[in-house]
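In response to reviewer comment 3 from the previous cycle, which asked for concrete evidence that the modeling workflow produces usable outputs, we include below a single protein chain processed end to end. The sequence was submitted unchanged, and the resulting structure tokens are shown without manual editing.
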Amino acid sequence: MKRIQVGGKAIGRSGQPLICTPVIGRSRAAVLDELAALLPKAPDLIEWRVDFFEGFGDIAAVIDMAREIKAAAGTIPVVFACRAMGEGGGFSALNESDVVKLYVAACVSRCIDIIDYEMSNSPVNVAMLREVSRENGVAMIMSYHNHEFTPSDEELSGRFIEAEVLGADIAKVVVMPKGEEDVLALLSATLKASRVCGIPLVSMSMGGLGTVARVFGWVFGSSMTFGFGKHCSAPGQMSIEELRPVLASVQHAVYGG
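The workflow returned the following structure tokens.
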């Protein structure tokens, strides 16, 4: 699997899952409060969920906020994500055209390190944002989210492969399990895709059952997991404080030392 370097972080390194922490504050004050709480916990990446931000309809306000987040984050890479309501998004009611304008502005301003965009969006928009992000030195995650159920492992493997074909730097698949077998399907799909894809993969299963995948997904090829600093952005997320020692214990058991 190819590794990529983003802001000094190696994404795709075998056996070293990175912890990404979401920021979901609705106001500037709330965002800064979250950052103050999470930065001392030293996450590997920060994901700003713009769809929760009350100023999402004002491009200038979004870019100003992104610049403040980046300045506070220092060397920690910042992921810019504006999730649609149907993909588990927050309060954003923007149409897709306006969302794309936000992504373009973020890339051009170079105030973020990575964008995360859904593959379910218009192929024209996916291709255009891939070009714009690449031109501005911004990495691109192409995502598939399913908050209703978990498709078969064959379909999930195909989602990872689809992201690579579309030119993603990182492929991400997040699903909701209905039973234990769904968690196994996601782990199986991640393992299969990791053996054929040449880009880093990120996979997560939500809810209580999904905790297994959040903790052990890296064993099967997932390069990243999510741990919250103050507020979670999806069901089943663990706090950084809970997650980090568990990951360290599992890594020690797997690799010894």
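The longest strand covers residues 139-146. We consider this sufficient to address the reviewer's concern, and the full set will be provided in the supplementary archive.
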